[in-house]
Structures are given as structure tokens and as C-alpha cells.
Design brief:
By secondary structure, the chain is of the alpha+beta class. Among the domains are: about 105-220, Immunoglobulin-like, CATH 2.60.40.420; about 225-315, Sandwich (Immunoglobulin-like), CATH 2.60.40. About 35% of the residues lie in helices and about 20% in strands. It is built from seven helices and twelve strands. It has helices at about 15-45, 65-95, 205-220, 225-240, 275-285, 285-290, 305-315; strands at about 105-110, 115-120, 125-130, 130-135, 140-145, 150-155, 160-165, 170-175, 180-185, 200-205, 265-270, 275. The chain is elongated and about 100 Å long. The relative contact order is 0.11. The structure holds heme C and copper (II) ion (CU).
Length: about 325
């Protein structure tokens, strides 16, 4: 399966939608094939090739109306089936099943990355992270969608359809994965230069693995383990702290991805780069070269500063 295929789904929300997708696809394709065949047949099967059009007398030939009735009848039945089926699916997937204790994640779409906050009544358990969202298998997840700047659209084709993130409004959708896996999502509302590099990943894992992930993510970054690392951290706080947060350091910016557990993510900059030491250094040295237009500026660090910052970031497991 290709990562963004919508022809197969995984989870109680996706199954009825996938069945409907296939049903409508089969009906539509059959209609096109049947109509095309009939038109071609009508065009090609001239009964009296020697006559030109003007020679044919205008006269009533009997059964034409019957054909119209048949065509309209078949179309009406098929359209009715489609409508009823679509309504039934919409009703079924409109909300998580009653009594199902969903997890709630608030997702903010912004140019050009996704911020996630795992909500909790206890503020010390609210987690902020970016672009890669872990969820427990078999539990519904409510997704509250916020637009930070322009309209984006949240789409994880294998799990849920598209829902817009609109500035000034909160939209709510939900999803559930019933198999562990890594499901790719994508912004699907054109939102500017790097719209195509605004991916996200939903990583579904067993409830135990998810709980462990959440507990680890809630921890602050450890204090630097050596005097050299203390210096590296200072370079980071100075140059990067006004935009990025690393909990447990003086860096507390909120306009860019939280980097407290950067090394637990597999990609950088919303799926644009793999999270490898080389790509990380390349990103920090020249974000505008990697993702032209990105809201992270080129900071023109010296070689030494770049090494310091990447060394420090690599301790953020
Ligand atoms: C003016 C604000 C700003 C400053 C200063 C800034 N960044 Fe960023 N940074 C961003 C934004 C915005 C993004 C998201 C970019 C995107 O995906 O398009 C980002 C993304 C990143 C990412 C990828 C994070 C992820 O989860 O994918 C890393 C790593 C990063 N910045 C490191 C740094 C470092 C190191 C510095 C200091 C040398 C720095 N940034 C300075 C705004 C900033
Ligand atoms: Cu977008």
C-alpha cells in the first residue's frame, strides 16, 4: 500500500468509509463503461449505411420512451442507493462510539508543520509535541483542530477523512487505529510555499507502549551531563530559545516545534528530512535551502556553534 492510499483503511472509522469508497468507485466506473459502450454502439451501428441523414423520413418509431424510462429508472435506483449508503456511513462515523473514553489531542496546523497538545485535566500531564503523534491502538482519539495562520486541512487517509483547520474556529474530528503502524498524514488545503512539505505521522502502538511513550515525553530534558554540554546548551538557548522550547532549559519559545525529545522523532521539519545527525546539521545550517520559505531563519552559526547546537540536540532523547 502506498502511504497516502485511501483505498484501504485501518480502524472502526475507516472501514465503513473504505467500503463506501469502493462501492461508489465501482458504481461510477460501471456507469462510465456502460454509457460509453451504448454511445459507441449507437454511433457505429448505422443500420442503413447507403442513406444520408436527409433521406430518412421523420416518423415515429415506437419504443424510444421505454429506453428513457429504463435509463432514468436505473440511474434513480443507483443514486438512491448511493445517497442512503453515504448518509448511513456519515451517521456511523460522525462521532466515536458512545462510552468509548477517547483520548483528546489538540492539533494546530501552521505554516508548515503540525503542533500537537495531548490534553489532560491535570496540566502537568499536558504534552506538547510536533509532527509525529503516537496513539494507542483500539482507543478512539478526538482531534481538535486549530488553524494558526491560514487554512490547512488535516488528512490521514488510512484512518480518517479530511477536516479543515480554520483560524478562529475549532473543528473536531476523530480517528482510531486497530493495528499498530505508522500512518502518514498530509495537509490537503493549499497553504503556501511549503504546503507539500507539511506531512505528519500517526504512530499507533499498543496501549502499554503508548503509555510509556507519553510518560517519557512528559519528562523534561535531563540537565547537561558535562561542562562542555552546559556550554552547548547555552549556545542553543541563545540562538534558538526564543522560538523553540526545551523543557528543563531556559529555551521557552512557542512558535516552533518543541524540541524536548527531538531524538524520539524519525523525521525533521514535518517529514521533510530524515532525523539523522547529518540531516539535522544540514537543516540548522541552512533551513531555507532545505525547505525554502520555512519560518525558521538561517541563523548563520559559526562551525563551532553548529557543532555545539547539534551535539546538544542529540542528547534530547
Ligand atoms: C524565528 C524562529 C526560529 C528560530 C530562531 C529557530 N527556529 Fe528552528 N524551527 C522554527 C520553525 C518555525 C520550525 C518548523 C519548520 C518547518 O517545519 O517548516 C523549526 C524547526 C526546527 C527543527 C525541526 C524540528 C522538528 O520537530 O521537525 C529543528 C531541529 C530546529 N528548528 C532547530 C533549531 C535550532 C538548533 C535553532 C538555533 C540554532 C533554531 N531552530 C532556531 C523556528 C525557529
Ligand atoms: Cu498546510
Amino acid at each position: 500500500m502506498t502511504p497516502l492510499s485511501y483505498l484501504s483503511g485501518f480502524g472502526i472509522k475507516a472501514y465503513p468509509v473504505t467500503a463506501l469508497t469502493w462501492g461508489l468507485l465501482i458504481i461510477s466506473v460501471s456507469v462510465v463503461v456502460i454509457v460509453t459502450t451504448l454511445v459507441l454502439w449507437g454511433v457505429l451501428a448505422r443500420r442503413q449505411p447507403e442513406q444520408s441523414i436527409g433521406d430518412v423520413a421523420v416518423e415515429r418509431r415506437g419504443t424510444g420512451l421505454g429506453w428513457l424510462g429504463l435509463g432514468v429508472g436505473i440511474s434513480a435506483v443507483l443514486l438512491l442507493i448511493s445517497v442512503v449508503w453515504t448518509m448511513a456511513v456519515l451517521a456511523k462515523v460522525s462521532a466515536p462510539p458512545p462510552g468509548s473514553n477517547p483520548l483528546t489531542i489538540e492539533v494546530t496546523g501552521q505554516q508548515w508543520w503540525w503542533k500537537a497538545r495531548y490534553l489532560n485535566a491535570d496540566p502537568s500531564k499536558v504534552l506538547t509535541t510536533a509532527d509525529e503523534f503516537h496513539i494507542p491502538v483500539g482507543r478512539p482519539v478526538r482531534v481538535k483542530l486549530i488553524g494558526a495562520d491560514v487554512i490547512h486541512s488535516f488528512w490521514v487517509p488510512a484512518l480518517t477523512g479530511k477536516t479543515e483547520t480554520i483560524p478562529g474556529q475549532t473543528n473536531v474530528t476523530w480517528l482510531e487505529a486497530d493495528k499498530p503502524g505508522r500512518y502518514r498524514g498530509q495537509c490537503t488545503e493549499y497553504c503556501g510555499q511549503q504546503h507539500a512539505h507539511m506531512a505528519l505521522f500517526v504512530i499507533a502502538e499498543s496501549p502499554a507502549a503508548f503509555d510509556k511513550w507519553l510518560q517519557d515525553q512528559l519528562k523534561s530534558a535531563p540537565a547537561p551531563a558535562s561542562p562542555a554540554l552546559v556550554q552547548d546548551q547555552q549556545v542553543f538557548v541563545q540562538h534558538c530559545g526564543e522560538c523553540h522550547t526545551v523543557r528543563g532549559s531556559m529555551a521557552g519559545g512557542s512558535v516552533a516545534p518543541d524540541l524536548t525529545h527531538l531524538m524520539s522523532r524519525t523525521t525533521l521539519a514535518a517529514g521533510t528530512l530524515p532525523n539523522t545527525p547529518g540531516a539535522l546539521a544540514g537543516w540548522i545550517a541552512d533551513p531555507q535551502g532545505q525547505k525554502p520559505g520555512t519560518k525558521m531563519p538561517n541563523l548563520y552559526l559559526s562551525g563551532q556553534e553548529l557543532t555545539a547546537v547539534t551535539t546538544y540536540l542529540q542528547t534530547l532523547k
